[in-house]
Amino acid sequence: MDTVNNSILQIARYNLQQTADRIALDEAVLNRIADPKETIELRLSPVLKDGRVANMSAFISRHSDILGPAKGGIRMTSSVTMDEVIGLSMEMTWKTSLIGVPFGGGKSGIRYDGTSLSSEDKERVIRSFARSAKRHFGPELYIPAPDMGTNERDMGHIRDCISYSEGTSITKGCFVTGKPIIIGGIPGRRAATGKGVVYTIIAACGKLGIEPQKMSVVIQGFGNVGSEAARELVTQGAKIIAVSDVSGGLLNEQGIDIEELVKYTSQYGSIEGFDRGDPMPKESIFNIPCECLIPAASGSQITTENVGQINAAIIAEGANAPTTPGADDILNNRGIFVIPDILCNAGGVFVSYLEYVQETQHEQMMVEQVENRLYKRMTGTFETVYTYSQSKGMTMRNASMEIALNRVVDGITARGLLP
Ligand code: NAD
How far is the CA of 298 from the centre of ligand 1 (A)? Predict the structure, then answer.
């Protein structure tokens, strides 16, 4: 397989094929899950505030509903494609299976640069997507959530759009997670992915004999996942020595003041211009020696071209598919402990499941309950994967994929192959 710049779909297909080969998966079963169960392409034409019509494509992939309704976020970027959405929906199938929630895998994409939109125009685009996609959403079908380029405000508009079209105050069950708390969101959802990333890092430190309080950390991407992971790491006593975002990089060997940087980025939109550290090119982020590196930006960032620069004991994949298979092999040969994406960043979908339960059962959960359950599920799943990987002498990625795929296969067997 080409090892540089592999797409997310190529990586997802490669991971599935490799795992299927290792567990000698029956071909008829493999064929059932090699491709998505359903894909939908939509054309949106929202009218913006100044009267212009913004034409764009949107994509939905329901990869699998073997273990439950499809679950997965809405990615809004200028470059998202159907292939990317399919690859991400496959990864969601393994992630929901591994973390043990009764969901399948799904994903959506809106191909538009939302960063250039005013908040009113973004709302127009999101409502246009919600109107067009509504018949593909539902608590028994597909439940979207935020992903790159979308946030809880957008999920609030989707929720409103659906209940508005029904003429009801609430929806019948949970149609979308990651909503504002005041309209059914769950406390702790925003920080869940980042905190979950850190819980797996702390668990890895325990296995590797690294003291979290003495750990220096480098983070690529300072959005939801990167910034929340940074905050939690600081709480645990670790030092964040470098971060980057799309605008550039920032280095401070003494430790970056994360709370100040969070305030700065929420005011100015990026880390550019933050003066308590030295600016550096964003490409240099993988050159900084550290105990732990967290890629928390986008896919295919660690490639065979730049993997040689990495000097870290742990790589915690906050982003989805940040490492190409060729780079992954090199990291493994070098003995770097990689916490794979489907384990590392599964905290978000786990808390989304709690939001789904809360809304379905008209229950209210306190943040302490949410954080407690998140901690137990992330550390428990880490332990399951670690034990499996040790017993089979394989990497954490291969162990995660085998556990996840075997559960999906068990679901297919339990349902039966007949329609
Ligand atoms: P986000 O849009 O909030 O943040 C993305 C960050 O990455 C931004 O700071 C952006 O500037 C930065 N970035 C983009 N390209 C970059 C580059 N080339 N170099 C450095 N920085 C770059 O997105 P997010 O929600 O934090 O998601 C980040 C990753 O985590 C994605 O891969 C997403 O699929 C994955 N993920 C997110 C969640 C979640 O709950 N938000 C859950 C699971 C996985």
Answer: 6
Alpha carbon distances (Å) from 104 to 100, 142, 349: 11, 9, 11
pLDDT digits over 202-255, tens only? Answer: 999 999 999 999 999 999 999 999 999 999 999 999 999 999 999 999 999 999
Under 8 Å between Cβ of 37 and 64: yes
CATH superfamily to which 190-344 belongs: NAD(P)-binding Rossmann-like Domain (3.40.50.720)
d(CA 196, CA 198): 5
Other Cβ atoms less than 10 A from the Cβ of 247: the count is: 17
In this structure, are strands 70-71 and 142-143 parallel, antiparallel, or unpaired? parallel
Give ligand 1 pocket residues (Cβ under 6 A): 146-149, 193, 220-226, 244-246, 282, 296-298, 318-320, 345, 348
Distance 319 CA to ligand 1 centre (A): 6
What one-letter code names the amino acid at 223?
A: G
Distance CA 192, CA 197 (A): 9
- Segment 380-393, tens digit of pLDDT: 999 999 999 999 99
Homologous superfamily in CATH for domain 35-185: Leucine Dehydrogenase, chain A, domain 1 (3.40.50.10860)
Q: Measure the CA–CA gap between 29 and 41, rounded to whole angstroms.
A: 26
Tokens linked to 148: 């790159």
Whose C-alpha lies nearest to ligand 1, atom 23?
A: 148
Q: CA–CA separation, 139 vs 68, rounded Å?
A: 10
State how far Cα 398 lies from the chain centre.
Answer: 19
CA-nearest residue, atom 36 of ligand 1: 319
